[in-house]
Design brief:
The chain has 14 helices and eleven strands. By secondary structure, the chain is of the alpha/beta class. The strands form four sheets. A five-stranded parallel beta sheet has the order 2-5-8-1-9. Strands 3-4 form a two-stranded antiparallel ribbon. A two-stranded antiparallel ribbon has the order 6-7.
Length: about 300
């Protein structure tokens, strides 16, 4: 639990004024999930990933998706070695602990599928041979919500593979001034110390899996998801995968608050981030220009919260 606080403190050195986003990405990482960042270019997505990789001691790779990027660029390929007379495996970008997949919507659907399969399975098959990714393994993928011409938007079944969808957004005026001052002197990434390791991340993930859930919390999680499935403005509600994601993140939130049990506030902490990209609004909602997060916020208010004796 203290290690999570140290990680947060180090990442903050290079990511100014975005404490909430840092905390949420850390929650997803500890919950063994993946993050989709829907953001405009230049708000610090790469810097954020590098800050996490350095603080955690993770092997990080970045791939810029374009229409000509092939599945083999992601999962690797086999080549014939004339010296040994054998086929050898050349690693792809996904063979790392933390992969930054920039503008995932600008590549072909078959390349998207290759990445999303690795995200789901934690392994990849090349010429009939299975290769496992290093553990822990996390993907931070980005897509620009504007300028969709010539892009391949992710279908809903693939969006569902991301545990959370977040947006960094523009910095505040004070934060942007501080960014200028720090960049003027040196690279803030140089200030980050490695305070964890892949083995420690795996240990924290294991500890989180044993966090206790009261029976009423199980019912609360399912009631929230069921409310998205029966809402009059929602055409497609949360999937069973979203139910599991909500439980895992709630445990991670409890863990970082130094509790070994989940309370309703832990479930609610990232409910919007976990569900907003998974639900599909119906035509009535679209005509009214309803916002998914406003609908989900109303669901949170209307769903009875269990009483937990602490």
């Amino acid at each position: 639990m203290q290690n999570a606080a140290k990680i947060f403190k180090e990442v903050k050195k290079a990511v100014i004024g975005k404490d909430e986003i840092i905390h949420k990405i850390l929650m997803v990482m500890l919950a063994n999930g993946h993050v989709l960042l829907e953001d405009i270019p230049g708000v610090g997505k790469t810097n954020l990933a590098l800050a996490f990789s350095k603080a955690l001691g993770l092997d990080t790779k970045r791939i810029q998706f374009t229409p000509d990027v092939m599945p083999s660029d992601v999962i690797g390929y086999s080549f014939y070695n004339q010296q040994t007379g054998a086929l050898e495996y050349k690693e792809g970008a996904a063979m790392c602990n933390l992969l930054l997949a920039d503008e995932i919507n600008r590549t072909s659907s078959k390349t998207q599928s290759a990445l999303l399969e690795v995200m789901e399975e934690g392994r990849m098959s090349v010429d009939g041979i299975t290769h496992s990714t290093p553990q822990p393994f996390m993907v931070i993928a980005t897509q620009n919500p504007f300028g969709s011409a010539g892009t391949q938007l992710l279908p809903q079944s693939q969006m569902d593979r991301f545990m959370a969808c977040l947006s960094i957004g523009y910095p505040s005026k004070d934060a942007e001034i501080e960014i200028l001052k720090r960049k003027e002197r040196h690279n803030p990434l140089d200030d980050i110390e490695t305070v964890s390791s892949p083995s420690e991340i795996l240990m924290m993930q294991k500890e989180i899996s044993s966090i206790y859930l009261d029976e009423s919390i199980y019912h609360y999680i399912v009631d929230l998801i069921n409310a998205t499935r029966s809402h009059p403005l929602i055409l497609q509600g949360g999937s069973p995968r979203s139910t599991l994601a909500l439980m895992q993140v709630a445990k991670a939130v409890a863990y970082t608050h130094e509790r070994d049990y989940v309370i309703p506030e832990d479930v609610e902490a990232m409910f919007l981030d976990i569900l907003s990209h998974r639900i599909v609004l119906n035509n009535e909602a679209r005509l009214d220009k309803s916002d998914p997060k406003k609908i989900l916020t109303k669901i949170l208010k209307e769903t009875p919260r269990p009483r937990i004796i602490r």
